[in-house]
Here is the input.
Amino acid sequence: MLKTALLVTSLVLPTAVFAEVQADCSAKMNGEARCEFANKGKQKDSSCVVIEVVRAYEATMYTRPSFGGKGAVLTSEKICSGLVEANDIRERTPSNAWSINGTPMSPLAFCESDNPWEKASTNCIMTTKVVAN
Here is the structure.
């Protein structure tokens, strides 16, 4: 009986079909964003992401300290792939808006510092986060 159960399980698993849409996104400090969605799966599917710009230092480092220090997040609008066929790629360059706590702001304004030794591009870390479609 045990051998039969294992055989049935091993026959069912390989026939399962999965989609796997992965996003590779980048953003410029002016807010222009670009995402490439690649479907590595075996069926068509879609995915949505947001780009997050996260402050790396204490609030006093930034020109606008009222928006928080280390860990404060500026978030892009949701960027969706649309339907992507299996083993295909879709590129999206949305007209993106960014905000923190409802306040519109560019990544440059969010990350800039009054300290001339600190460059805005190194004061924050960009990440991509998958969100619900």
About this structure: The radius of gyration is 21 Å.
